[in-house]
Amino acid sequence: MTILNKADQTQGKIQYHVRVKPGDVAKYVLLPGDPARADRVAKYLDDPVLIANNREYRTFTGTYKGVGVSVTSTGIGCPSASIAVEELANVGAEVFIRIGSSAALQPEIRIGDLLVSSGSMKNEGTSRYYVPDCFPAVPDLDLTHTIIQTARSMKSELDFGLHVGICASDDAFYGETQEWIEKLAKLGVMNVEMESSAIYTVAHVRKLKAACICAVSGNLITGEVVYEKENTRLVEGWDKEIKVVLESIYRFETNQDK
Asked: Where is the Nucleoside phosphorylase domain (predicted)?
């Protein structure tokens, strides 16, 4: 009996879920959750091409200031996000930046602010298939530093609040009780989202780079949320984080050449 090795079987071929092949994606890949936000990113790229659209995974590739950049939506949660990173890595992607929406857990944070993650609390099950529970989920420090510095330099021009800290990746959007949210807030957790810890973990295991920046969708501590109409400040935050990340990629790539 021969047990299938998925890693060997999928390396360098057209990928089962994401449906991309070698040469389709750039070194740098932005990872929004919503497929519609892949289209939003594409508007900021030069010569964007729709590469694949399968399940929750929608991929464009283009350039920004001459640097190759792709964007692939991941859907919601760590399982689908980890598949995206695995399959994109199989065809040559090396640097992954989650651009997400996230709920704030500290009272001073407002809708539309930008949050840069310095680490993620692993309140999810996907990472356990890769590393022990006690193993930390952290982004690449150089990449994250570049994003923080770039965001600070663009803060006045784009007019956003900027916060840096530890986030939490939870599995159950509707399973988060008031007690759970209060516990996270008391621990000093900055925000809660649903993908970063798995993205960090897979990238680490595969010796790749990952980071995460999110626009604030609401604040679970102050009750500032928008559920029944368009969240205009969040939409503005998406555009601002895209601009910050694309400029960060350009600066990071330029510094790599020095």
From this structure: 27-219
